[in-house]
Specification:
Elements (H helix, E strand, L loop, with lengths): L28 E7 L4 H14 L3 E6 L3 E3 L13 E10 L3 H14 L14 E7 L4 E3 L2 E3 L8 H10 L12 H8 L1
Antiparallel strand pairs: 1-4, 1-5, 2-4, 3-4, 6-7
């Protein structure tokens, strides 16, 4: 079930002033993390460490790890539950470059290209990149289905409940409340 956001782990780190991020844009960037195979918590920490050590990324906040049931297609067999989280950072590369970096992290975690909704060691999704609205073949921002995904909105509401997606009037907390 959903973990409560009333824990010290959920307290977000204060946002640094733009002057303390030399060379990095001030846009808020959000990435979803998920794992339902193997040592799930270790895979999420692996992804966070990879992001933290990237020279073009500054990690500012990460939600608690929340356990959720896998979302299945009608014909799929049951899968193990996921651990999900959302991380916020600042990024000095383009959204497409960040997406490619996230795919590299997934590959290093042993993720293989698979069918939609299959179990995986690590799943990283670029959710939002500042106020940008992007539609490229492999990248849509904000993520097109995130307003329907409680497993993303719940941890996201822990670190940025007030955030509003470009083109939407509701905050992340309001979007989650509609689904909860």
């Amino acid at each position: 079930m959903w973990a409560s956001c009333k824990t010290p782990l959920c307290a977000r780190m204060p946002l640094p002033e733009p002057s303390t991020l030399p060379g990095l844009p001030t846009e808020r960037v959000f990435v979803a993390l998920g794992s339902n195979l193997g040592k799930r918590e270790a895979w999420l920490h692996f992804a966070l460490k990879a992001l933290e050590t990237a020279p073009f990324w500054r990690l500012l906040a990460c939600s608690p790890f929340l356990e959720t049931q896998a979302v299945l297609l009608p014909h799929q067999n049951p899968q193990p539950p996921y651990l999900n989280a959302v991380a916020e950072g600042r990024c000095a590369c383009s959204p497409l470059e960040l997406l490619r970096f996230l795919l590299e992290i997934e590959a290093k975690a042993g993720r293989k290209p698979e069918k939609r909704k299959e179990a995986r060691t690590l799943d990283l999704d670029l959710l939002s990149f500042g106020e940008r609205q992007v539609e490229l073949g492999e990248l849509q921002l904000p993520h097109p289905r995130l307003h329907m995904r409680a497993f993303v909105l719940s941890p996201w509401a822990c670190i940025a409940p007030e955030w509003k997606l470009p083109g939407r009037k509701e905050s992340i907390a309001e979007l989650y409340a509609r689904l909860a």
